[in-house]
Amino acid sequence: MSEATLSAPVKGRSLWDDAGRRLMRNRAAVASMIVLAVLVLLAVAGPYLVPFAYDQVDKDDVWLPPLQAGHLLGSDALGRDLTARLLTGLRVSLAIGLVATTVSLVIGVAWGAVAGYVGGKLDEVMMRAVDVLYSLPFIFFVILLMVTFGSNIVLIFVAIGAVEWLTMSRIVRGQTLTLKNKEFVEAARAAGLGRGAIIARHIVPNLLGPVVVYVTLTIPAVILAESFLSFLGLGVQPPMASLGTLIAGGASDMELAPWLLIFPSLVMVLTLMCFNFIGDGLRDAIDPKDR
Amino acid sequence: MLRYIGRRLLIAIPTLFLVITAAFFMMRAAPGSPFDSDRKLLPEIEANVLAKYGMNKPLGAQYLDYLAGVARGDLGPSLKYRDKSVLDILKENYPVSLKLGLSAIAIAALVGVSLGVMAALRQNGTVDHAVMTVAILGVCIPTFVTAPLLVLVIASKLGWLPTAGWNDGALANLVLPVTVLALPQIAIISRLTRAGMIEVLRSNYIRTARAKGLPESLIVRKHALRAAILPLVSYLGPACAGLITGSLVVEKIFNLPGLGKFFVISALQRDYTVVMGMVIFYAALILLLNLIADLLYAVLDPRVRLA
């Protein structure tokens, strides 16, 4: 053993270090993280890399198969470049995934933590409300929302986020119930901290594990929900593109131009798979007893 | 048990009330009316039409009328399909959705449980990895991707099955839509079964069964499987919701005369009563299925106490 190792201060391994190490050993999760990073980069930088705009119509270059006239992935019925549309669509879908998930995260964590920590009557009322909302046929309400207020992107964020927070709040409440009887919370209470401060400073940070896992699994669910709406013609409106609108368009032209269906579908499936593998990997890493 | 059922049914009433209220006012807040058409109606005629459906009253009064109607079991007439009541439409089209949904869930349960058990018995083996890959794919590939692809390959190119249509529910017309609906459910059910099975196979009573020399097949079938598929029972409610969502897409793509196809069209056409009727119908269905799932769970797992 060398001098250096002996004199170096001993650094403990936190639970998060362990989890990180376990995650890095999960090949599917690591590969997914790399692929997802590439996809995100493409979505962010992509529109600047392609010499066409996503809504640039070209009468002479309609229905081009891939690799013709500078259209890497071909063009659609209006001569718009599929690469440009696909990258824009990916960007829109990822943005919807992130924003709607954040909406559900904020509502869900606040709701669940308060219900779980305060307990008693308030807990009962709050969780009963969640139960009631759970038993609604939500897709109908999202469709009604879209029909009522017209489909604009902000509304899609809010509508989907408002649906997804229910599970989050249940998970958070369950965790809070176990946390609130732990010694460190008692210590904080004994030190005279108020309820709000305990929830914000001691409960919420310790909820992080299960919440992170569920967030990674919510993003693909949101992307799927948006594309589902787009497929029914109620989501993102043309000429704007999302993965869902591209697939819907591709499906109606698939006999003539199968590439319009195949490439968006591939990107969609790849994106969703990455999130799911990362989510599963995180769950195994953070909560190894479930393996 | 009876008291529990009674309490759950009592909770169902305010839930349904909430559903009706939210749907009613959302639908009415939408711009446009069911009587909009390319040809503008004369003001007198429009007033007559509105009066016929009681829509000349203030919105609050219409709401109360509607609630009273629902309480009597009357969902009103359709505003778009002349001479048809909402109940007629539900009765005519529900069997199609039901047949699709039931076939899909039956197949999904059968295939999903078998796959899950096979995967769990050879944990981390080739079969396990294959099944888990299928499960991930099934969750990640949306119905509106599988449906057109299957139609393109199996119906259009190979010509084995009809591309669309109902044809009174002939088997050939059912195969593709049911497959598309069942795939995501197979994925979820096989994952749930695998997880349940792996946990159960580690438990003490299975070790006991092995120790007393029971053959492995008997242990799996009689002892492990029963406990392992318990989580599936509570998945019944969400599965139903998933099928409803899926049927909106599948009925559109395959042009099937089910309720899902009606919903989006009716919402876009502002056919208030039809939309309301369907929302109420599905909400009641989901409430009922959740109740059945909870009861079933308590019957199957004596450790659960209903309270």
Q: Any overview of this molecule?
A:
The complex is a heterodimer of chains A (291) and B (307). Chain A has 291 residues and is mainly alpha-helical. Chain A has a single domain (16-49, 82-290), classed as MetI-like fold (Orthogonal Bundle), CATH 1.10.3720. Helix content of chain A is 73%, strand content 0%. Chain A contains twelve helices and no strands. The mean pLDDT of chain A is 83. Chain B folds into two domains: 2-71, no CATH class; 87-300, MetI-like (MetI-like fold, Orthogonal Bundle), CATH 1.10.3720. Chain B is flat and about 85 Å long. The mean pLDDT of chain B is 84. In chain B, helix 1 (2-29) packs antiparallel against helix 13 (272-300) and helix 6 (143-157) crosses helix 7. Chain B has helices at 2-29, 43-52, 59-71, 86-121, 126-140, 143-157, 171-201, 204-211, 216-228, 230-234, 236-253, 259-268, 272-300. Chain B has 13 helices and no strands. Classes of the chains: A mainly alpha (291), B mainly alpha (307). Chain A binds chain B through residues 128, 131-132, 135-141, 143-145, 147-149, 220, 224, 227-228, 231-234, 244, 247-248, 250-251, 254-255, 258, 261, 265, 268-269, 272-273, 276-277, and chain B through 11, 14-15, 18-19, 22-23, 26-27, 29-30, 136-137, 139-142, 144-145, 147-149, 152, 156, 237, 241, 244-245, 248-249, 252-253, 263-264, 267-268, 275, 278-279, 282-283, 286-287, 290.
